[in-house]
Write a structure and sequence with these properties.
The chain is α+β, with helices and mostly antiparallel strands. It has two domains: 141 residues, FdhE-like fold; 125 residues, Alpha-Beta Complex (FdhE-like fold). Helix content is 36%, strand content 13%. It has eight helices and eight strands. Strands 1, 2, 3, 4, 5, 6, 7 and 8 form an eight-stranded mixed beta sheet that branches. Helix 2 crosses helix 3, helix 3 packs across helix 6 and helix 5 packs across helix 6.
């Protein structure tokens, strides 16, 4: 569980909260292990660089308490300062292209990102907005008490921020072995979801697992022929150091496979954003 940046607790726990002090650093490490020889190696290295900057922010205490809605733009400013001089030219230009002096425009971009309705012109700068939103919301989630959060075992969206799951993780270990937790792509809260039912529609009899032939890794795609949806499943026993965001990115070929088969994604990875 700690490999996924989760605080250990009584199990089976309905909700597991992120540890912002370690989550982004471990993600950066995982991405750098996945990158060599990968078709998306340059993108994985870029997200690793962004994750390192996120770690520096998330691990530091705030000077004053603030809600995630109010804090994320400050974190975006701090990300820009930390990334200055470290980015390749196209990424640096994309960061500079953000409407830095227009709070309403930034909030609008953030809203489109979290609802999956990005415009084509949003795409180049979206990763930086995603990075800042993740820091603000993960810091917020890490400060909550899991016992105060209600999450039924059939919840589709995050019980903390309302975000979509990036993937489900089938955990290993004596306290959580075989349990599926859905992992939020925004605040990184994980919540238990029954394995016997489709996350989207609840159907239990028309579910299948798909994989890419010859692809070695922890990723599988759970498909539902009742509603035509799919969600990535990551098997912790195959990669104890997996990170839901990182391993979802690295298994993009699986998304292509099931997408070509007509299945629509339930999950949303903010670093695989597409124009709505």
């Amino acid at each position: 569980m700690t490999a996924a940046g989760l605080q250990p607790g009584r199990s089976p726990a309905p909700v597991r909260l992120p540890d912002p002090a370690i989550l982004f650093r471990r993600r950066a490490d995982r991405l750098r292990r996945l990158a060599p020889g990968h078709p998306l190696s340059a993108w994985l290295e870029f997200v690793a660089l962004l994750s390192e900057a996120q770690h520096a922010l998330a691990a530091a205490p705030l000077s004053a308490p603030a809600t995630p809605e109010a804090q994320w733009r400050r974190d975006l400013d701090s990300l820009r300062d930390r990334l200055r001089g470290a980015l390749p030219t196209p990424a640096a230009e994309a960061l500079d292209s953000l409407p830095w002096t227009d709070a309403d425009a930034l909030d609008g971009l953030a809203a489109r990102l979290t609802t999956g309705t990005l415009l084509p012109d949003d795409l180049t700068a979206a990763p930086f907005v995603a990075g800042a939103l993740q820091v603000a919301w993960t810091r917020h989630a890490g400060g909550l008490k899991a016992s105060d959060i209600a999450a039924p075992a059939t919840a589709v969206t995050c019980p903390v921020c309302g975000g979509a799951p990036v993937a489900g993780v089938i955990h290993a270990g004596s306290d959580v072995s075989g349990l599926r937790y859905l992992h939020c792509g925004l605040c990184h809260t994980a919540w238990h979801h029954v394995r016997s039912a489709c996350v989207a529609c609840g159907e239990g009899n028309r579910i299948g697992l798909r994989t890419v032939e010859g692809m070695d890794g922890p990723a599988r795609a759970e498909t539902c022929d009742a509603c035509g949806s799919h969600l990535k499943l990551l098997l912790a026993e195959k990669a104890p150091d997996l990170d839901p965001i990182a391993d979802d990115l690295a298994s993009f070929a699986l998304d292509v496979l099931v997408g070509d088969g007509g299945y629509a994604p339930i999950g949303r990875n903010p670093f695989l954003a597409q124009a709505g």
